[in-house]
Amino acid sequence: MLEQLKELIKRYVEVEDEAIVPQARFSEDLGFNSYDFMCMLGDIEDDMDIEIEEDKASTSKTVAELLEYLEGQQ
């Protein structure tokens, strides 16, 4: 799932694969703004065919936190 999430992240920000590590913070380390993050959540729903509760997922500050949330939704 990490590889799939990496590809989605790279749709929204220009970063190298090496920068997308579990401890990477979306806004501070990867350069996301809140709009891009919410749009990415919509793409995750479509691409991974899961239902995301945006109010819960939007509290994810790091890649690891979002992965943990997503894995719990499958």
Question: Please, could you describe this protein's structure?
Answer:
The chain contains four helices and no strands. It has helices spanning 2-12, 34-48, 54-57, 63-73. Helix 1 (2-12) packs across helix 2. The N and C termini lie close together (11 Å).
Secondary-structure blueprint:
Elements: H1 2-12, H2 34-48, H3 54-57, H4 63-73
What's the quick description here?
With 74 residues, the chain is mainly α. It is 55% helix and 0% strand.
List keywords for this structure.
74 residues, mainly alpha, 4 helices, globular
Helices and strands, in order, run as HHHH
Taking Cα atoms only, what radius of gyration do you get, to the nearest Å?
11 Å
| Overall helicity | 55-70%
- Largest beta-sheet characterization: none
Secondary-structure content class:
mainly alpha
Distance, first to last CA: 11 Å
Q: Which residues sit in consecutive blocks of at least 5 with pLDDT less than 50?
A: none
Shape designation: globular
Number of strands: 0
Assess the beta-strand content as a share of residues.
under 5%
What kind of assembly state do the chains in view correspond to?
single chain
> Count the helices. How many?
4
- Mean residue pLDDT: 93
